[in-house]
Specification:
Elements: E1 2-3, E2 10-11, E3 31-34, E4 60-65, E5 69-76, E6 81-83, E7 93-102, E8 110-111, E9 116-121, E10 128-140, E11 146-148, E12 154-156, E13 163-173, E14 181-192, E15 203-206, E16 209-210, E17 235-237, E18 245-255, E19 260-272, H1 274-286, E20 304-305, E21 312-322
Parallel strand pairs: 1-21
Antiparallel strand pairs: 2-6, 3-15, 4-5, 4-7, 5-6, 7-8, 7-9, 9-20, 10-13, 11-12, 13-18, 14-15, 14-17, 14-19, 16-18, 19-21
Length: 324
């Protein structure tokens, strides 16, 4: 679970299962299609419906806010989550407690388990990122592949034929009185043109961005992963920029921009709670590791007492930049 100041708290509560690179808490990357624009914490994690059978549907879960206000969390069968009615505020201390569970794989059979608990402190400040400039360029020649219909009309079938790149210069402003942990999201978003009905989804998104700035350098990431080159991470701390203003340059692309209406870029600096930061860094190492007899086991960071997982929090500064 990840909480933020804009939406109600919800959490996935499941049976313990082997962790793999396709876990529901996999970090989002590369190319995606969505039916809606996601909340900030959903821009970090994705949920895979294949894991529905692991979800505990009869947990006794409650939310405790600042050690005094208690909210019952109810199960949502549509999204397999436990939801509360509370919308957090910056600086809140949030605790989730699960005291009694009914095993989802055993019908009408309740199994009493040890209490499970997790706690997080929302960052008390909002991160700052300021846009200095944007510049658009075409890195590849536009071309189209056509399909001829029965009525001899033509439609584009290659949604990847053009690759339009935006270069963004921005400035991160870091406060100097505390240790801070960040994640930078650079997401290109487009709405398929209505004339191309074969593009069924409402939004098409690309998380692919590149930068040569040292702030994104991570010596532990010795291999590439997906669009991420070796030694590149968009999850970082303020060791290099503590108390300073730091300018960065990033490139993001929009594949098939010619087929999209009103494309834009979400530039978002996320201020992470420490536990969420350590969890994400472990995931980055986990997913590039070789798993054989000679590999040392990787311990994924967890702040869940009596169980496994992460209960994190974030605040964020978001900018919407037209892709034009």
């Amino acid at each position: 679970a990840v909480v933020d100041p804009d939406t109600v708290v919800f959490a996935f509560i499941s049976e313990a299962t082997a962790f793999d690179y396709q876990s529901s808490l996999a970090v989002r990357a590369d190319y995606y299609t969505y039916d809606q624009i996601l909340a900030p914490r959903d821009r970090i994690f994705e949920y895979n419906s294949r894991e529905e059978k692991l979800m505990l549907k009869n947990a006794n879960a409650e939310l405790i806010v600042n050690d005094k206000d208690v909210y019952k969390m109810k199960y949502n069968s549509k999204y397999y989550t436990y939801n509360s009615e509370y919308i957090p505020k910056q600086g809140d201390n949030i605790k989730i407690r699960v005291e009694s569970l009914s095993n989802s794989s055993t019908k009408d059979s309740e199994i009493q388990l040890e209490p499970v608990e997790a706690e997080v402190q929302l960052p008390s400040t909002t991160p700052r990122i300021e846009v200095i400039s944007t510049e658009l360029a075409i890195k590849e020649k536009e071309y189209y592949v056509y399909q001829v219909r029965d009525d001899y009309t033509q439609v584009h079938t290659d949604t990847y034929g053009s690759d339009t790149v935006m270069t963004i210069r921005a400035k991160i402003v870091d406060p100097g009185d505390e240790k801070n942990f960040y994640r930078l999201l650079v997401r290109s978003v487009g709405i398929p043109n209505q004339s191309y009905e074969y593009l069924q989804t409402k939004y098409r998104c690309v998380d692919d961005f590149k930068s040569g700035d040292m702030i994104f350098y991570d010596s532990d990431l010795t291999k590439s992963y997906g669009w991420l080159p070796a030694n590149f991470s968009n999850v970082f701390d303020d060791e290099l920029i503590n108390g300073k203003e730091y300018e960065i340059t990033v490139e993001t692309r929009m594949r098939g921009k010619c087929l999209l209406a009103e494309p834009y870029v979400i530039l978002e600096l996320q201020h992470l709670s420490p536990d969420l930061y350590y969890y994400l860094k472990d995931i980055e190492i986990f997913r590039i590791s070789d798993f054989d007899l000679y590999t040392n086991p990787i311990q994924i960071w967890s702040n869940v007492k009596g169980g496994w997982g992460v209960f994190g929090a974030m605040t964020y500064d978001t900018h919407i930049l037209p892709f034009k």
